[in-house]
Amino acid sequence: MTEKNAARLDWEQRIGLPSDLPLAEPGGAPKLTGTARLPAPLGLCSEDGTGHVLLDWEPVEGALGYLVHRADTVDGPYEPLDHRGGDVLAVPSPPYADTLVEPGQGYWYKVASWTDAGPGALPAEPVRGCPKARGTRPPAVTVEVDAGAEPVPLPPVWNRMIGAEHLSMLLWSEPGPGGADVAKEYGDALGIVRDELGVRTVRAHGTFLPECVRVLDDGSFDFYGLDTVYDRFLATGLKPVVELSFMPAELALDPEYTIFEYKGIASVPRSWERWGELCRALTVHLRERYGAEEVATWEFEVWNEANLEVFWNGNQAQYHLLYETAVRAVKGVDARIRVGGPGSAAAKWVGPLLEYCREHDVPIDFVSTHTYGNAPLDFRPETRSFAEATGLPEPEILWTEWGVTPTHFHRVNDSVFSAPFVLRGMKSVLGVSPASQGKSADALAYWVATDHFEELGRPPKLFHGGFGLLTVGNLRKPRFWALRMLSQLEGGRVPSTVGGDGAEALVESLATRTDDGAGIDVLCWNGTLDQTKTGGAAALDREARVEVNGLTPDASYSVVLRRVDETHSNIKAVWDAMDAGHNDWPNERQWSELRAADELFEESLGTVTADAAGSLSLTVDLPMPGIRALRLTRA
């Protein structure tokens, strides 16, 4: 008997178990790199900055991230630093700016390495920091760009995928929030993120919702509803991430175990075999309707956030069986289809799923997980270890949900604060420099495209703290403009480094150059993870001197500046400035004014000339929160 046949026999024996039989949680010592506790990083140091303390340290091999601890006295107690993001506190890499501080007060810091097993030991000796008060002018930083370097392709991790509410919203016919035509606006929103952000795929919950799939009396499955949804969705030119969820009532062990306003069933199946039959039937049907070659380009993700009780009434071992049953069913139809999971919350369960797949010879093409309020952790130690242990290709890393907060109806979603947050996360995934060890993920999918979203209820007013990049009515929020500015970068990436007060922790940058050297884009931003500063903080404002080297000597360049801050490209500020009274929704005149203001602020700075050495400099204000984009075009 071959190893693969033995693995399949083992699976067939396991899916014969009753679904309600308690299964043991995975035990024993974890085997993959990233699941063992690691020593504390060496070289921890601090720098007193204006309005912050800057921490830096040496990376630890195998670490997925680092957990910063702080105390008010040298003797402690040392507690994890909570920047109020509402989710994972560990950061993927140094440096780190602590802005939850008072000027003149001393703080002590220790940093632990982070893996699936949690934080490792803290170092014996702390470092001390004491933030400085701001003077009369914002502190200066320098953004230095080497436009003469060979451009390196910029992986489009920000637009490979985006999240959206369940796709059956494309069929809505009833009036929506504020009188909106939900189906039209939802479809238009998908078109906007496709055309203006370059989005290629959309992940949404609820492939198996009742309006999409019916279980017939003879046990077969009717996908007419899903056909109607997918026909309309695929007409947009986008591709779906087929999330295999929720459980049809006829297959669920507990059909009353539901989540969200639309009552998605989050139950384990009555029968693992029937779950596999559903996944197989879906795959066969999609290939027959949309073509085997097309469906082979889609990703299939098994469930959503099964590590949260609200999304799954089983345990981790039962999720592993759910995953294995699904992946064997899908690949039994077409081995080319890419399948992965666990689609987990808070960056959990990735290592255990990889270990399960290694032990049982279960296919896995990508790992998927979610995080909010922070830059994503770096799971490459685990995916690389899996590849080394199995001899299989390294699974891709897809963050299939990511955003500034996991909290519904949170004001930060409508704020400018969220715009530099988006750029911080994207640069973290891209790597600190073109010469770094490559991207730490293959997709970072913002959750979600539009405020047409009903998980915990429909939007009660225009600006309600919705997850969407676009409002009801498809006005563009500051987060949208951050992704738009990334999409406007032309050419390949060239080195761009920041020096000065808060460099590479508050103020960061990206730069690109066209192949012919005629165009240079410089994107810089100022932001903090600390959500107590959502409304801004004067102590963190900066003045940025942008120095571009490697240009054509004595050449002239036209300069265009784009801005996102409290008074530019901030549609909520436009609404707040209107005489809206107590209206939750705009009237016809106000809609007209809002649509006229719905644009990315842009101005010409005229023409500048490089010196004989091929260098020039420009100075821009850089408030926190704020983004500046400079485009230089050779005249």
Write out key terms for the chains shown.
12 helices; 635 residues; 23% helix; globular; alpha/beta; 8-stranded parallel beta sheet
Write a structural description.
The chain is an alpha/beta fold. It has 12 helices and 30 strands. Helix 4 (272-290) runs parallel beside helix 6 (316-333), helix 7 (350-360) packs parallel to helix 8 and helix 9 (418-430) packs parallel to helix 10 (478-487). The chain is globular.
Architecture blueprint of SSEs:
Elements (H helix, E strand, L loop, with lengths): L2 H13 L29 E5 L2 E5 L8 E7 L7 E2 L15 E3 L8 E9 L2 E2 L7 E3 L10 E7 L14 E4 L17 H16 L3 E4 L9 E2 L5 E2 L1 H11 L4 E6 L13 E2 L4 E2 L6 H19 L1 H4 L3 E4 L13 H18 L4 E7 L5 H11 L5 E7 L7 H11 L5 E8 L14 H13 L12 E4 L31 H10 L4 E3 L1 E5 L6 E7 L5 E8 L15 E8 L6 E9 L6 H7 L10 H10 L3 E9 L6 E7 L3 E9 L1
Parallel strand pairs: 9-26, 10-11, 11-14, 14-17, 17-18, 18-19, 19-20, 20-21
Antiparallel strand pairs: 1-2, 2-5, 3-4, 3-6, 6-7, 6-8, 9-23, 12-13, 15-16, 22-24, 24-25, 25-30, 26-29, 27-28, 27-30
Helix pairs in contact: 4-6, 7-8, 9-10
Uncertain regions spanning at least 5 consecutive residues: 1-9, 20-30
Largest sheet: 8 strands, parallel
Distance between the termini: 71 Å
Strand order of the largest sheet: 10-11-14-17-18-19-20-21
What does the average pLDDT come to? 93
Question: Structural class, please?
Answer: alpha/beta
Integer-rounded radius of gyration = 25 Å
User: How many β-strand stretches?
Assistant: 30
